[in-house]
Specification:
alpha/beta, Dehydroquinate synthase-like, alpha domain, two-stranded antiparallel sheet, 13 helices, 11 strands, globular, binds nicotinamide-adenine-dinucleotide, binds the ligand O=C(O)C(=O)C[C@@H](O)[C@H](O)[C@H](O)COP(=O)(O)O, binds zinc ion, amino-acid biosynthesis, EC 4.2.3.4, 3-dehydroquinate synthase activity
């Protein structure tokens, strides 16, 4: 097992990685009076796993699967369950599931009594390498992705690779979009590892190293800029983690949250790589490397569901926008993200058309 330390401004914590990491849970639960376990309704055995490990009484809160969990109605239902149970400040919330569950559960913990202790137990690759780490919590609105939320850090994160055994292949692959993102913005070694034959096997050393490196990228970025201060030019803080997300989030909203996050982000990265080639001189080989790595993983490079104008309208609500100025995270070269502000709209549309 490995540990990545996150020296967060809101309180440091560890991300425990590897087969059997769930054994760390009792220590993180500590002397909590009760434990609310928020889990997808399709995965009740996850709540069983937690209940079997903790001494405290457990309140199980089943929430809808995938993005259907990240709504104001589901959030209000979670608050009602805690109210009925008389949940107090010495109680603890555990979010166990994919990124949708950990985003919701983290927001429940952030808002209940203005904040109770939270432990995150991600059960998808995507949530292990990204969603469960770094303190972004929240829900979607029909108008856009993650439009309501809070920065709220967990007391600890447990990434037990054993829990990935039941994860469908498409969800496993979708998580690799965020790993590849970390490779392009910060750690080129990830791009080499992601080319190996055993990359998708949770029992392999390659997989373990990919996850550790992606978590380390995220930990370093959020330690330096937890609240995502506005970046400018080549000085890019947390906004770098949004590489591929401006178009990706628009696709998710346009598709009514029926697309996997990682798949939408894959299209978003293929697009921004082309924009970066036009505006920042990103090398052709790096654009091709995006296409090859993502398509070899079975991830999409285009979204057939919309014309560019519909997606552009949704992108105006992106959190990086300032007033009417769209701001994008582009790439000058591998490991060199930069902010593109107020780009020529013809370049953006032409890059989208190029995807086909
Ligand atoms: N907070 C952040 O910093 C951050 C970062 C990246 C992504 N996100 C968010 O994360 C979400 C995407 O997360 P995701 O890709 O994990 O999606 P998800 O939570 O929808 O999980 C994908 C699917 O896998 C199922 N599943 C989860 N664990 C399983 C297991 N062990 N066995 C079998 N099935 C399992 C889920 O029920 C779901 O159907 C998006 O909402 C995205 O916005 C947040
Ligand atoms: O942690 C971050 O910061 C990220 O941008 C990570 C993204 O992968 C993630 O999808 C995040 O939820 C996007 O945040 P948002 O602020 O653009 O909604
Ligand atoms: Zn993401």
């Amino acid at each position: 097992m490995t540990t990545v330390h996150v020296p967060s401004q809101l309180g440091p914590y560890d991300v425990h990685l590897g087969h059997g990491a769930l054994e760390r849970l009792p220590a993180l639960v500590g002397d909590a009076g009760r434990v609310a376990v928020i889990h997808p309704e399709s995965l009740p055995r996850l709540a069983d796993e937690v209940a079997a490990l903790v001494d405290a009484p457990v309140l199980r809160v089943a929430v809808p699967d995938a993005e259907a969990a990240k709504t104001a109605d589901v959030l209000a239902t979670c608050w009602s369950r805690l109210a009925e149970a008389g949940f107090t400040r010495n109680d603890l919330v555990v979010g166990i599931g994919g990124g949708t569950t950990t985003d919701l559960a983290g927001f429940v913990a952030a808002t209940w009594l203005r904040g109770v202790r939270y432990v995150s137990v991600p059960t998808t690759v995507l949530a292990m390498v990204d969603a469960a780490v770094g303190g972004k919590t929240g829900i979607n609105l029909p108008a856009g992705k993650n439009l309501v939320g809070a920065f709220y850090e967990p007391a600890g994160v447990i990434c037990d690779f054993r829990l990935l055994e039941s994860l469908p292949g498409a969800d496993l692959r979708a998580g690799f979009a965020e790993i590849i993102k970390c490779g392009f913005i910060a750690d080129p070694a990830i791009l080499d590892l992601a080319d190996r034959d055993d990359r998708l096997e949770p029992g392999s050393l390659t997989f373990a190293e990919l996850v550790r490196r992606a978590v380390a990228v995220k930990a370093a970025v959020v330690a330096a800029d937890l609240r995502e201060a506005t970046s400018s030019g080549d000085r890019v803080g947390r906004e770098a983690l949004n590489y591929g997300h401006t178009l990706g989030h628009a696709i998710e909203a346009h598709a009514g949250y029926t697309w996997r996050h990682g798949e939408a982000i894959s299209v978003g990265m293929a697009w921004i790589a082309r924009v970066s080639r036009s505006l920042l001189g990103l090398a052709d080989e790096v654009v091709a490397q995006h296409d090859e790595l993502l398509s070899d993983l079975g991830l999409p490079l285009r979204y057939p569901g919309a014309d560019y104008a519909s997606l552009r309208a949704i992108m105006s609500l992106d959190k990086k926008a300032r007033g009417n100025t769209l701001r994008l995270v582009g790439l000058r070269a591998v490991g060199r993200p930069t902010i593109i502000a107020g780009a020529d709209e013809r370049v953006l549309e032409s890059a989208y058309r190029e995807l086909g």
